[in-house]
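Morning F.,

Quick status update on the modeling queue. The single chain you submitted on Monday has been processed. Sequence for confirmation:
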Amino acid sequence: MGLVLHMPADCPTRPRAATQGLATRQRRHDARMTFESWLRNAGGAAHQGAATSAGFSRHVVDRAVASGAVQRIRRSWLVDPDAPPAIVAAAAAGGRLGCVSAARHLGLWTFDDPRLHIAVRPHSGHTDATNTVRHWNSGPIATHRWELVEPLPNVLAQVAGCQPLERGLVVWESAIRTQRIGLEVLRRLSLRGPRARSLLDVCSELSDSGIETIPAVRLRRIGIPVRQQVTILGHRVDGLIGDRLVYQIDGFEHHREAHQRRADIAHDRRLVLAGYTVLRYDYAQVMFDWPTVELEIRTAIAQRVHLAS
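Structure tokens below.
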């Protein structure tokens, strides 16, 4: 973008034609900048039709593309240099960001999955893109051609059909916990398939984070009943088994707040003095050493420490 000099309007040395030409160039410059700002506010990517509907002429858009400030993908998609790579990849693949890729883009808890998940129209052809998962199933919310990210209910429906129950539950409860959607709203939607119904049966609003969902679902799967977020001695515990066995989970960023850590340890001490057994685990132990965690909990149960004396 060139430098624009603003000279006084009453300058006697500038010819009228030159003044008009500069004003025209300035308007073009401002229009292009306005379009680029609009595109950034739209998340860094938008359909040509959306730009036209917002009042930007094809000429303004073409000038932004020609300047290199905006890139055109598959004729209809416009992206700026700072657009999220997943969004750009979805546009290039001819689909919408979906399933766990969309969940991650929306800031929800997900498990690592390096593949790009995109939603495409039913009967859409296959893509040559590698490491890409295509979802042809339509979700409960109708989509339109100007969208690059699936609506959240569709994302959750795709996650239910694509991911194992445990991983799907982490995403679903993350959406509920962050108040992106309510559990009752999900129950009223037309979610098809046994996996979605299974998630509706086990999903709750009790996990404070995705890492807290995992122990509860894994323990229940092997027949160990868990009550979540039970208040004991004035504070909630992550999990209570029986009457007296408590487990606590430290999240990935737990140690960033030293005062919170001290408060948690002090509560652990009060629980022990009141006759509870407390087992505390961190993120790495739950995610990468679960067999040890499970065995310790089962050993505690075998020692009957979960029962009131």
